[in-house]
Design a protein that fits this description.
about 600 residues, mainly beta, 22-stranded antiparallel beta barrel, 6-stranded antiparallel sheet, 28 strands
Length: about 600
């Protein structure tokens, strides 16, 4: 009876006490300002932390009440005269309009919908009045509309406590959030030239972003595209087949309340990405709040890896120490040892380290190294233990629009990546050996320029060769919605030399339709083998469109000309899109 009296009194007095406390703590509101609910205060101002093209990163996310589709504006500062005040292309008193397109707990990515000037880091964005009203209503009514009040007592009857613990509570936003797509495709490959032939392939595409599956702490993320059946043996591996084999798809276990973590599928070891992608698994255990150790094993199937070999197996252990915060200083250092095997024969034992240090987005240094002892080929002198690979990169943001970088790449052994991927840019970090310096500069009108220069000290040329890469990208060209990127590269090292040129153009025709075009030419010469230069031209065209709210269609065409690569490939995909996040938002 005593507990019942206390409970009844608390329920009757709680609204009055809460209202009095909030009224006493609420700040005074100016007479000309629009009043907001004192019982549901909301954050309405956010700051730009980073800008990349038309994507803007801000310092708040789901915890501040933002969601995908939330509108933000950059208002005109009336205290300072500006030329933007004369431009009313967006809206009087508004410089830019943005929309949240991706959301995390404490950060969000926004897309610029319209603007009268370039946004810069430090700009203050705010919620329009309509969005503020939505958040106030949600904070005021959302938690009391469906869920009863839960009152906590310092002591009480265990039976009463058990009843209170059984009261329903809302699920966390990430529980059972599922979105992605699945489709089936048909591909026709036409081999040209003297040995002309054709083959047909049937494949499948699957993209997944599943979090907290069935209320557990397992998550499925990644993208996979592959062949299920071939009508006849293809005469060669195509560029699209190689790109498809660079996918990542993994099932991971991440539980803040557990010391164990795990992953399985095609993935990077989270604490040592320099080991390249593996088809396998890892298991880790936290030894403290900043230390984790574990084991890993799998194969090395990525044709863009420097040590690629479809018959290679890899396994080992690791220890990682990390700390800090992404909003200030952060560090991570990993050390481990393992063994590479060809099939089930030991090829080379190795030890590795990987370290990274960063301060906000202003400074970042990364270094990875492997020390190994390869098994020598028959009738060849044994290879001593030494550094087999070393990658060093330094990035400094000296201005909100200017980023400088310095890299140093060393490979003792001839890399085994597939050179057909040279023109795609996936091999850049291995092509530019030696010390290279570069910069990335954002200019007005959505133009970004970038370059890299360096000297290859181990080149077979009589004098050191100059590695160089120049490129530029532009978004919303002449307000047509077109985005273009142009790049030229020349590389020379002890292992390979050559050039490549690419032009990429893309456009969102409508909200549900996209077109991509890539043209390129590359010349690749393997220096150790002395083979003649392999010249090739290629073109990729991709068209994608949504059919209603559930279906999508995608069509791709690839043409390759030059050397032994002389073919056309057509691929058509029809599939289903799924997303339960929008339905969950509507149900709130």
């Amino acid at each position: 009876m005593k507990h019942f009296t206390v409970l009844l009194a608390a329920l009757l007095l709680a609204p009055t006490v809460i209202a009095q406390q909030e009224a006493a703590s609420a700040p005074a509101v100016a007479a000309d300002a629009k009043p907001t609910s004192a019982s549901a205060p909301v954050r309405s101002e956010f700051h730009v932390r980073y800008i990349s093209g038309t994507s803007v990163y801000i310092d708040a996310g789901r915890d501040a009440g933002l969601a995908e589709g939330t509108s933000l504006v950059l208002k005109q500062d009336t205290s300072k005269p500006s030329a933007d005040a004369q431009n009313t292309a967006v809206e009087p008193g508004v410089i830019a309009k943005l929309e949240v397109v991706a959301i995390a707990s404490n950060s969000a990515v926004c897309e610029v919908k319209s603007t009268t000037r370039e946004l810069v880091v430090g700009d203050t964005l705010s919620l329009p009045d309509a969005e503020v009203e939505k958040l106030v209503e949600k904070n005021t009514l959302g938690n009391t509309r469906r869920y009863p009040m839960v009152i906590s007592f310092t002591e009480g009857d265990p039976l009463d406590e058990e009843v209170r613990e059984a009261l329903p509570r809302p699920d966390l936003p990430e529980v059972n959030q599922i979105r992605g797509r699945i489709g089936f495709d048909v591909s026709l490959i036409q081999q040209l030239g003297q040995a002309s032939s054709s083959s047909k392939q049937y494949g499948m595409v699957f993209r997944a972003d599943f979090t907290r599956i069935l209320g557990t702490h397992w998550n499925l993320n990644g993208y996979w595209r592959g062949n299920l059946r071939t009508s006849s043996a293809p005469t060669q591996t195509t560029l699209q087949d190689l790109i498809n084999r660079t996918y990542l798809m993994n099932l991971t276990y991440v539980n803040p309340g557990s010391r164990w973590t795990a992953g399985i599928g095609r993935l990077y070891l989270p604490w040592a990405s320099s080991l390249e992608a593996i088809d396998g698994a890892y298991v880790g255990r936290m030894l403290g709040s900043h230390t984790v150790t574990g084991i890993f094993a799998g194969s090395t199937p990525d044709p863009a890896a420097w040590n690629y070999n479809p018959q290679r197996r890899i396994g080992g252990n690791f220890l990682n120490i990390h700390g800090g915060d992404f909003n200030s200083f952060r560090f991570s250092t990993t050390a481990g040892a393992g063994v590479n095997m060809l099939k089930w024969t030991i090829d080379r034992p190795f030890a590795f380290t990987e370290n990274s240090f960063s301060f906000k987005h202003y400074f970042n240094v990364y270094h990875s190294m492997q020390i190994d002892r390869p098994t020598a080929n028959p009738n060849m002198a044994p290879v001593k233990t030494g550094i087999g690979q070393s990658l060093l990169s330094l990035r400094v943001q000296v201005h909100p629009r200017v980023v400088l970088d310095l890299t140093d790449t060393y490979l003792r052994d001839v890399p085994t990546y597939d050179p057909t991927l040279v023109g795609t840019g996936l091999l850049d970090k291995y092509l530019y050996q030696g010390i290279n310096g570069g910069a990335r500069v954002q200019f007005p009108r959505h133009i970004t320029g970038y370059f890299s220069l360096g000297s290859s000290t181990d080149s077979a040329d009589p004098k050191n060769a100059l590695n160089r890469m120049f490129g530029a990208s532009m978004a919303n060209i002449w307000k047509t919605g077109l985005t273009a990127d142009v790049r030229f590269s020349k590389f020379s090292s002890a292992f390979a030399s050559g050039t490549y040129k690419t032009v990429t153009v893309s456009r969102d025709v409508t909200d549900n339709m996209r077109l991509d075009l890539q043209l390129g030419r590359y010349a690749y010469n393997s220096v150790p083998t002395g083979s003649p230069s392999s010249n090739s031209n290629f073109a990729n065209v991709t068209f994608e469109s949504n059919l209603g709210s559930k279906l999508f269609v995608q069509s791709m065409f690839t043409a390759q000309r030059g050397g032994s690569l002389d073919y056309n490939q057509w691929t058509t995909t029809i599939g289903l899109r799924f997303n339960n996040r929008a339905a969950a938002r509507r149900a709130k």
